[in-house]
Structures are given as C-alpha cells and as structure tokens.
Amino acid sequence: MHTKTQESRISLFMPEENAGGRKIRIYFDGQQLTVPEGVSVASALLMSGVRTFRATPVSGSPRAPYCMMGVCFECLVEIDGRPGRQSCLTQVQEGMVIKRQDGASGLNIPSAEG
Ligand code: FES
C-alpha cells in the first residue's frame, strides 16, 4: 500500500527544480510579472500569486482556474485586448497584457448600417 509522505506532496503549480529556463515579462492588470517561458497563462498567474481571474456576470463572485484543461471556462481573462480567452490553454508570450475579466465579455458585432 502506498502512503503519501510529506516529501512526496508536490504542488501542481510549483516550478520544477530544473525549471531555470528563460523568464519572460507579462503584465496582469498593469502589474509586471516575471514568469517562466513556455507555461500557460493560467499557470504563470497562479505561480505569481494571482487567485482571482474573473468575476461572474450574475453575482460578481470571484473565479479562478479549476480544471486546467479547457473544460470548465473558469479561467477566462482578457489577453492583448481580446476578452473570453481560456488562460489554461494559452501559452504566455513576452509582453503579453492580461486583464482580469469582470462579468460577461461583450460581443463586438458590427451593425448592418456599417
Ligand atoms: S481552467 Fe478550466 S477551462 Fe481553463
């Protein structure tokens, strides 16, 4: 029977010891963050201590990533001006500007009048 020891418990969001690869800069709600290259936006924000990614449209309650695999849609944020992006499925890029999403993202539907 396998029993977990304290040493065998590893956080899902703890960087690996050899993750000394290149770091890049991203911005979340105007704050500069330095994060590992190659991780998802959700992972980068969680590693940086961000715990609220969006607020629900109805009650405004805070939400954060849950599944980390594109199923729950709890991780929606605005990335480089585009709302409703799943941060768990988006890889961080140098200089990426990310904003917390409050409520439903608006649809930009052009009018028939032009
Ligand atoms: S965390 Fe569930 S879809 Fe992104």
From TrEMBL:
A GO molecular function held by the record: oxidoreductase activity
The keyword Oxidoreductase appears for this protein: yes
Keyword field: Oxidoreductase
Keyword Cytoplasm attributed: no
This protein's name: (2Fe-2S)-binding protein
